[in-house]
Design a protein that fits this description.
single chain, alpha+beta, 3 helices, 4 strands
Protein backbone atom coordinates (compact mmCIF):
# COMPACT_ATOMS: atom_id res chain seq x y z
CA UNK A 1 0.00 0.00 0.00
CA UNK A 2 2.45 2.65 -1.15
CA UNK A 3 4.74 1.85 1.77
CA UNK A 4 2.11 2.96 4.30
CA UNK A 5 0.92 0.69 7.08
CA UNK A 6 -2.66 -0.49 6.84
CA UNK A 7 -4.69 0.78 9.78
CA UNK A 8 -7.70 -0.89 11.37
CA UNK A 9 -10.67 0.76 13.10
CA UNK A 10 -11.40 -1.10 16.35
CA UNK A 11 -13.61 -0.14 19.25
CA UNK A 12 -15.46 -1.92 22.03
CA UNK A 13 -18.43 -2.72 19.78
CA UNK A 14 -16.67 -4.57 16.97
CA UNK A 15 -14.18 -6.26 19.33
CA UNK A 16 -17.04 -7.57 21.48
CA UNK A 17 -18.96 -8.70 18.39
CA UNK A 18 -16.14 -10.81 16.97
CA UNK A 19 -15.33 -12.14 20.45
CA UNK A 20 -18.85 -13.63 20.58
CA UNK A 21 -17.75 -15.69 17.57
CA UNK A 22 -14.50 -16.61 19.36
CA UNK A 23 -12.39 -14.54 16.94
CA UNK A 24 -9.56 -12.32 18.14
CA UNK A 25 -8.55 -8.95 16.75
CA UNK A 26 -5.22 -10.45 15.66
CA UNK A 27 -6.93 -13.27 13.75
CA UNK A 28 -9.26 -10.89 11.90
CA UNK A 29 -6.40 -8.58 10.95
CA UNK A 30 -4.25 -11.53 9.91
CA UNK A 31 -6.94 -12.81 7.54
CA UNK A 32 -7.35 -9.36 5.99
CA UNK A 33 -3.60 -8.89 5.58
CA UNK A 34 -3.13 -12.33 3.98
CA UNK A 35 -5.01 -11.34 0.80
CA UNK A 36 -8.49 -12.77 1.45
CA UNK A 37 -10.83 -13.96 -1.26
CA UNK A 38 -13.58 -11.41 -1.94
CA UNK A 39 -16.93 -13.19 -1.96
CA UNK A 40 -19.56 -10.47 -2.12
CA UNK A 41 -19.79 -6.69 -2.28
CA UNK A 42 -22.80 -5.09 -0.63
CA UNK A 43 -23.00 -1.78 -2.43
CA UNK A 44 -24.08 1.43 -0.76
CA UNK A 45 -27.48 2.60 -1.96
CA UNK A 46 -27.26 6.21 -0.80
CA UNK A 47 -24.77 8.70 0.60
CA UNK A 48 -25.47 7.62 4.20
CA UNK A 49 -24.62 3.97 3.55
CA UNK A 50 -21.25 2.31 3.23
CA UNK A 51 -20.07 -0.50 1.01
CA UNK A 52 -19.39 -3.73 2.82
CA UNK A 53 -17.22 -6.53 1.55
CA UNK A 54 -17.60 -10.16 2.52
CA UNK A 55 -14.32 -12.07 2.42
CA UNK A 56 -12.87 -15.51 3.14
CA UNK A 57 -9.35 -15.96 4.39
CA UNK A 58 -7.05 -18.15 6.38
CA UNK A 59 -5.02 -17.55 9.52
CA UNK A 60 -1.46 -18.83 9.88
CA UNK A 61 -2.87 -21.68 11.96
CA UNK A 62 -5.18 -22.75 9.11
CA UNK A 63 -8.43 -21.41 10.49
CA UNK A 64 -10.67 -20.24 7.61
CA UNK A 65 -12.73 -17.21 8.59
CA UNK A 66 -15.45 -15.21 6.95
CA UNK A 67 -15.17 -11.45 7.42
CA UNK A 68 -17.43 -8.50 6.72
CA UNK A 69 -15.38 -5.32 6.34
CA UNK A 70 -15.75 -1.72 5.27
CA UNK A 71 -13.52 1.34 4.94
CA UNK A 72 -14.05 4.22 7.38
CA UNK A 73 -11.82 7.25 7.44
CA UNK A 74 -9.04 5.50 5.56
CA UNK A 75 -9.07 2.53 7.93
CA UNK A 76 -10.36 -1.02 7.58
CA UNK A 77 -13.24 -1.73 9.95
CA UNK A 78 -14.08 -5.34 10.63
CA UNK A 79 -17.85 -5.39 11.08
CA UNK A 80 -18.02 -9.09 11.89
CA UNK A 81 -15.99 -12.29 11.65
CA UNK A 82 -16.81 -15.96 12.21
CA UNK A 83 -15.60 -19.43 11.28
CA UNK A 84 -16.55 -20.06 7.67
CA UNK A 85 -19.11 -22.86 7.21
CA UNK A 86 -17.72 -26.10 5.78
CA UNK A 87 -19.02 -25.46 2.25
CA UNK A 88 -17.31 -22.05 2.10
CA UNK A 89 -14.09 -23.50 3.57
CA UNK A 90 -14.03 -26.07 0.79
CA UNK A 91 -14.71 -23.36 -1.80
CA UNK A 92 -11.93 -21.19 -0.37
CA UNK A 93 -9.39 -24.03 -0.30
CA UNK A 94 -10.27 -25.08 -3.86
CA UNK A 95 -9.90 -21.50 -5.09
CA UNK A 96 -6.53 -21.11 -3.37
CA UNK A 97 -5.33 -24.39 -4.96
CA UNK A 98 -6.54 -23.16 -8.34
CA UNK A 99 -4.69 -19.87 -7.92
CA UNK A 100 -1.50 -21.07 -6.28
CA UNK A 101 -1.29 -24.79 -6.96
CA UNK A 102 -1.35 -27.55 -4.38
CA UNK A 103 -0.45 -26.26 -0.98
CA UNK A 104 -0.28 -27.89 2.40
CA UNK A 105 -3.67 -29.37 3.28
CA UNK A 106 -5.67 -27.58 5.89
CA UNK A 107 -8.11 -29.39 8.12
CA UNK A 108 -11.71 -28.53 7.28
Amino acid sequence: MNGQALLFDWDEANLAHIARHEITQDEAEEVFLRDPLDVELQAAHDNNSEERLQQLGETATGRVLQLVTTWRGGKVRVISAWDAPKQLKLYYLAEMRRRYGDTEDTEV
